[in-house]
């Protein structure tokens, strides 16, 4: 080949040595003697037998009990023992169903799921998902440490392969969810190489949720809004905080706002809560106008409403100064919720610079000073980027509905939210109202779905609770 005049044009088989590698070294293949393999298998078997009582104490003691009973007492006593144990379990289930469920049913389910789903499919799913690592011609897989079941999900605790990071798993959550036939997969990092994969067994949030019943008593710190992915009621705090709801168009921001208003109705009715509504689109809140103490839809009246809220807030703060540090909602000192639909209309999109500046100033003042004196801002926004809404950090609580990009998740819910499994960018358009939120006291985002308050529900709410006492009784207040 070197003597050829047109060596540069010579076709080279990909597997043949190229001129620069005239000599190739191959790793020699040495056959392992059978005795080594058999010794290894025997060692593994013995180790499993010795460790079994520690790993599966209940199963091992049950089998040992059965064998000992048959051996020493015979089959009749075994039948009696089985009947008595069955009666005992039935009594336990009847008398203490919750503890029976968590200590017996869910544990048995976890063992079954470990054997039937995770152990059986672990290797093929992880290899195909691209999570198997190769080193010196050997394959390494993340190792399942334990499987536990809650009422709604499997939690698979996994030890990662050294040299990989939780981000590698996070980038494969869709493949893992489909691989294990789960509606989604969430990754929680517990420590170095220690992560939990949470696979819901079924999606409780797949079906739309009807408007929740109006509560008899209003707890401003826990308004019923919808359902959490674990089947519990999603409750949202308004007192002592401000809430920013972010989602693309059609994500269901309206259902978050209307669920909150619905949960406030008895307090709106007795005058301890007043809702001031700003509705630039004129489509979202206008339908429930009689429920609001104040309402504005044009830019000028909206900014005037915000500035009036600031003024009232400051008057109240001046009254409280040196006398009281917290607010209790009463008819004289009501809790004021300023609802701002599409806040970017005032802060970013309006052509008049003065309107934008006044709106930003008012929102910033309300959100930074209003919490302790009973003023709350509940705002909705489509685009969370800083250019559009640079005040988002003044909202302590946020709801991330369907978003466009993964980077937006962290913008809304905080830096590590996406890493902790808040996949708001993966919410599909066919489940409006589904969102991720951070519940108080927990850094882990929770998937929720807001109940859907229909136009008919709003009409019924207006018929029963409107017009707001704010409109009826307070001079100077009214529709802006
Ligand atoms: N919680 C929900 N459950 C079921 N369907 C919902 C829910 N919320 C909204 N929808 C459906 O999605 C549609 C759009 O919802 P909505 O108007 O609240 O979205 P949005 O985020 O406010 O959009 P936009 O920013 O364009 O106003 C509604 O008309 C309704 O059909």
From TrEMBL:
Coiled-coil zones: 296-323
Residues covered by the FtsK domain: 215-410
Transmembrane segments: 74-94
Key words, A-Z: ATP-binding, Coiled coil, Membrane, Nucleotide-binding, Transmembrane, Transmembrane helix
Annotated GO MF terms: ATP binding; DNA binding
UniProt entry tagged with the keyword Endoplasmic reticulum: no
Source domain of life: Bacteria
Gene3D superfamilies: P-loop containing nucleotide triphosphate hydrolases
Stretch forming the signal peptide: none
The keyword ATP-binding appears for this protein: yes
Positions of ATP binding: 247-254
Descriptive protein name: S-DNA-T family DNA segregation ATPase FtsK/SpoIIIE
Natural source organism: Lipingzhangella halophila
Taxonomic classification: Bacteria, Bacillati, Actinomycetota, Actinomycetes, Streptosporangiales
């Amino acid at each position: 080949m070197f003597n050829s005049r047109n060596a540069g044009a010579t076709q080279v088989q990909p597997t043949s040595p190229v001129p620069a590698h005239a000599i190739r070294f191959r790793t020699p293949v040495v056959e392992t003697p059978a005795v080594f393999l058999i010794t290894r298998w025997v060692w593994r078997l013995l180790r499993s037998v010795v460790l079994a009582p520690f790993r599966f104490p209940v199963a091992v003691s049950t089998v040992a009990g059965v064998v000992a009973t048959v051996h020493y007492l015979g089959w009749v006593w075994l039948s009696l023992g089985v009947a008595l144990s069955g009666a005992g379990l039935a009594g336990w289930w009847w008398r203490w169903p919750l503890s029976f469920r968590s200590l017996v049913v869910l544990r048995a389910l976890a063992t079954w799921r470990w054997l039937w789903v995770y152990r059986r499919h672990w290797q093929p799913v992880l290899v195909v998902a691209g999570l198997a690592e190769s080193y010196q011609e050997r394959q390494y897989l993340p190792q399942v440490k334990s499987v536990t079941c809650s009422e709604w999900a499997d939690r698979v605790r996994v030890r990662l392969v050294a040299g990989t990071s939780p981000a590698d798993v996070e980038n494969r959550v869709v493949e893992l969810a489909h691989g294990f036939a789960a509606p989604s997969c969430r990754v929680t990092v517990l420590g170095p190489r220690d992560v939990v994969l949470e696979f819901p067994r079924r999606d409780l949030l797949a079906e739309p949720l009807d408007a929740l019943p109006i509560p008899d008593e209003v707890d401003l710190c826990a308004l019923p809004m919808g359902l959490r992915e674990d089947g519990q009621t999603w409750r949202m705090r308004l007192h002592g905080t401000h809430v920013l709801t972010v989602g693309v168009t059609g994500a269901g921001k309206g259902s978050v706002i209307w669920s909150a208003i619905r949960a406030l109705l008895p307090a709106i009715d007795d005058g301890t809560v007043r809702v001031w509504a700003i509705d630039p689109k004129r489509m979202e809140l206008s339908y429930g106008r009689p429920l609001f103490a104040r309402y504005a839809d044009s830019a000028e009246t909206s900014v005037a409403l915000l500035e009036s809220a600031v003024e009232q807030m400051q008057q109240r703060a001046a009254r409280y100064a040196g006398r009281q540090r917290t607010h209790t909602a009463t008819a004289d000192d009501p809790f004021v919720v300023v609802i701002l639909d599409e806040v970017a209309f005032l802060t970013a999109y309006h052509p008049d610079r003065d309107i934008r500046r006044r709106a930003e100033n008012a929102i910033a003042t309300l959100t930074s000073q209003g919490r302790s004196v009973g003023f709350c801002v509940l705002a909705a926004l489509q685009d969370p980027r800083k250019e559009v809404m640079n005040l988002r950090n003044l909202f302590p609580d946020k709801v991330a509905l369907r978003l466009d990009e993964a980077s937006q998740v962290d913008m809304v819910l905080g830096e590590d939210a996406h890493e902790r499994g808040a996949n708001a960018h993966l919410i599909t358009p066919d489940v409006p109202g589904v969102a991720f939120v951070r519940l108080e006291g927990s850094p882990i985002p929770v998937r929720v779905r807001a109940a859907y308050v229909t136009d008919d529900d709003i009409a019924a709410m207006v018929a029963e609770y409107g017009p707001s006492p704010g409109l009826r009784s307070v001079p100077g207040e009214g529709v802006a």
